[in-house]
Amino acid sequence: MNSVLLWLLCVVSLSAQTLESLIERQLGDVVALYKELHANPELSYYEAETSRRVADALRAAGFAVTERVGKYADSTLECYGVVGVLRNGSGPTLLIRADMDALPVEEQTALPYASRRTARSERGEMVPVMHACGHDIHVAMLIGTARVLAQLRSQWRGTLLVVAQPAEERGAGARALLADSLYERFGRPDFILGLHTDAEHPAGTVGIAAGPITASVDMVDVTIRGVGGHGAYPHTTKDPIVMAAEFVMALQTIVSREIPPRQPAVVTIGSICGGTKHNIIPDEVQLQLTVRTYDDSIRDQIISAIGAKAYGVARAAAVPLDRMPIVHVRPEEHTPPQHNDTALSDRLERLFVRVFGAANVYRSEPTMGGEDFAYYRLGGQIPSCFFRVGAVNQAQFKQARARGEQLPSLHSSRFAPDPEPTLRTALRAMCAAALELLGQRK
User: Fold this and answer.
1) 305 lies in which domain range?
2) Which of 198, 212, 320, 329 is the most buried (most CB within 10 A)?
3) What is the predicted pLDDT for the residue at 109?
4) Alpha carbon distance 54, 34 (integer Å)
5) What whole-number distance in Å separates Cα of residue 216 and Cα of residue 224?
6) pLDDT per residue as tens digits for the range 8-67
7) Of 284, 313, 333, at which residue does a domain stop?
8) Same domain for 348 and 327
């Protein structure tokens, strides 16, 4: 009995050593790929070059690759989803997903591989572009993981699906792939995995938790309409700027006074636009809001309250009935909350403790950030886990802690992951998770 146990321990140890050595051999190329991706970001809906890089890398690793997977609600947009399939005998199907798109942010990291790119947005505006949310890390991880697992086929069985998804930042990519019969064409997975860089934890650490992990997200457009006129004669107008100011203040009471304190909820105004000149009172003001919740009933309550506040301000200002506010919730940019499957997450947490040590595994707190990764689980029908990898340079993390300083957050122009330790951790975590779920070949 003892000899059998010793043999099994030796096999496990040898497998771990093989995985670690393969990752170390891949790491230099994966870091170089990350830097290329970081220097050449592409906006949501325009990930043509990034998707080509992914497809080429997956083909070289031995995957059957399909490009341009996905159908957006707007049929004029090309969808650049990439799906790679590696079949390795009978067994479970695992889907690993990474997002590809960047943000309209002007980079201020001063890195030698910093983005200097600009691009034309779907509105026709020239904007700076930056990978400010770590999607370049995610893509590099996906390719590195695919390469390593392709070389370790003797240690697992089943089917590996790797998905490079566009337009996560717009909440559109996952739905586009599912609308293009993702599971019908390539197989319905038994498990789904994804990860995200964490701007608040040091590189070398992994965060995971069962249950709610990312919030439901809605984008709301509000147009406050009035009656414009000359700035010298405000009494002849219905000033939408004043109404917009009142509306902004009224919004602050929704979460603080109408939502139960136990329920997490956020209402944020991200944009206010109105007027053209000092002495002209405009006809309208546009506001862009985001609503974050974990509960559908709370979501509905908040959206209803936004409309009530807007209409209340307009009625108080005696705005004509044909100039009442317009409140529009963008259905194409909604994402549901992500709930990590309990059994799967607990299993992976135990695995990560074995791989990284308990000191390097932290319990992920639910965030009010959103992720369209949640769509792949089909409302909980498929077990899924979305975990995090620390991305902050260890020395910078300790210094910020000692000084009580705030680290650059996701979407910051100064967000700069520490490439090598972040990617090493991401590869170790995802490869170990895949081998855990796809199992050893008997």
Assistant:
1) 220-333
2) 198
3) 98
4) 12
5) 25
6) 444 445 466 789 999 999 999 999 999 999 999 999 999 999 999 999 999 999 999 999
7) 333
8) no
